[in-house]
Amino acid sequence: xxxxxxxxxxxxxxxxxxxxxxxxxxxxxxxxxxxxxxxxxxxxxxxxxxxxxxxxxxxxxxxxxxxxxxxxxxxxxxxxxxxxxxxxxxxxxxxxxxxxxxxxxxxxxxxxxxxxxxxxxxxxxxxxxxxxxxxxxxxxxxxxxxxxxxxxxxxxxxxxxxxxxxxxxxxxxxxxxxxxxxxxxxxxxxxxxxxxxxxxxxxxxxxxxxxxxxxxxxxxxxxxxxxxxxxxxxxxxxxxxxxxxxxxxxxxxxxxxxxxxxxxxxxxxxxxxxxxxxxxxxxxxxxxxxxxxxxxxxxxxxxxxxxxxxxxxxxxxxxxxxxxxxxxxxxxxxxxxxxxxxxxxxxxxxxxxxxxxxxxxxxxxxxxxxxxxxxxxx
Length: 378
Fold this sequence. Notes:
Blueprint: H1 5-8, H2 13-21, H3 33-55, H4 60-85, H5 87-106, H6 110-144, H7 169-176, H8 180-215, H9 222-274, H10 278-317, H11 326-339, E1 346-347, E2 351-352, H12 355-377
Antiparallel strand pairs: 1-2
Helix pairs in contact: 2-8, 3-4, 4-8, 4-9, 5-9, 6-8, 8-9, 8-10, 9-10, 9-11, 9-12, 10-11
């Protein structure tokens, strides 16, 4: 069935399978209620975190730490709500990916199969690692809160008019937060892993394209060379369309996350400068590393597309055009002009997602941190 195409593709099966079971993607009349049961409790917890932040306003280190938790859960909600609102577009994109995936599988090119298998292996490895690391990270926060004095919840929550540390209110809300390692992992990480899988598939298609261009030289017949070149042009047009659709799906969410993560990294660095608790220092370092890992995953995988685009352009340049007809030369020249325009995923539909942009984001966060520290030290 077409509806099952995204789930059946090994490249994205883990993450699409999770969101399918939760009715975030491919819902049915029988399981459509699951997405509300999945999202609404987290929305309520995020609102209670906001009330708790208002109570922590006077304690700057505690406020910054809880602001991180609030932002992380808000970000997870933002990702999931984006997928819910753009569900038809995501499903169409997954079906298009499945069609391209099956075309490569059905081909007789062993190199294409090998490149596709490498992308699948890397995507599945990332998905498993991300889910496991996220689960253990949140589980650690839940367990750690049990040993703190005075009483505290894993994620600071409050409701107006309630004493959250009084028995049995404290115990009730603590128990209600016990499922958070599973819920937040399924809400937060699938988006990151899917983004990486989509970029890895685009990278694999560009590698296949470069391989096909390198094979033109091995063909002796002029017509065969021309047919191979036109086939490569069609592949490039397909990949360009694929990257444009991916950018349309994720551009604003990754742009918002760049702003949120950059601001929170700056705040945590400042918090690290004013606290004295060794335990809190370790926690803050872990939080910073977590956000850096997510950002690096985005920008590194998007940067791979830019690198492979340059290799495609180089492969096209190396085609033995001097031995070919004028028709072949003119077609190749037009193709070379097309390959000079890199296929990039843009954050906020403005900035290209490259490692250079990732470095600029980190530099900006550190610059604001040093400015903030200088102001407060005066």
